[in-house]
Amino acid sequence: MKVGCIGLGDIAQKAYLPVLAFQPGIELHVQTRTPATLTRVADGLHLPEDRRHTTLDSLLAQGLDAAFVHAPTLAHPEIVTRLLEAGVPTYVDKPLAYELADSERLVRLGEERNVALAVGFNRRYAPGYTQCADHPRELILMQKNRIGLPEEPRAMILDDFIHVVDTLRFLVPGQIDDVTVRARVEHGLLHHVVLQLSGDGFTALGVMNRLSGSAEEILEVSGQDTKRQVLNLAEVIDHKGQPTVRRRGDWVPVARQRGIEQAVLAFLDAVRAGKVLSARDALETHQLCERVVRAAQERAA
Question: Which of 75, 92, 95, 132 has the fewest CB atoms within 10 Å of its CB?
């Protein structure tokens, strides 16, 4: 099975390549336009010269069975379009694109060409978060905060807050009937944003503060007088009277703790089975993010 990895930045090197490089039956090819990075990364993986590519044309000429896209978001529309048009099942880092129209076009293209397209929402596979899906969820609260990083609204929401939006969508136990957005924007930069989703019997709150003084991710789900809390995707704390803490094992890889390994294997299994994945559900997350972007832009006007 020939698998291409396009883009060899930080997330590819830390999370995806360590998984892909050691999968049995995988012939891994890597591509980046930066020769020095290509040499350094490929040497570290002990890849032969014929699996190293500086152009997408060269990579596509290998007859790929699947591809992983970890290039900068601005390059996603062009790269994903070429992969889908070539019939290559494609897994792409979130977001599909910064502009909703581009994301919608890519999803339609995959469906029209009957080619698998998946978006890397790894938290849907993270063990701590999948355990929350089995817990009563009358109230869901997720915070993903940063230190000193106010940013232009579209980039912040599509590159980072999208994880919060998708996790809430994944965990809400019913149809969303109401969406409320609150944001603070100063001098064109988004300082914090709060998203509230509600429906019959549940409320979900997503918060991101880019001036919080702490880099942290906290998820809490509660209901029926119990609460489950996940800290930085590593510790699971059950509250019912006295708290019970379960910590990540010392030898659990970070990629598995964060759900990346499981997302990769699920995609590869689908490709092997000939299952054509649609990114239609992922598109709903992008559409909700667009509502958040517009609300923030209105605050900035």
Answer: 75
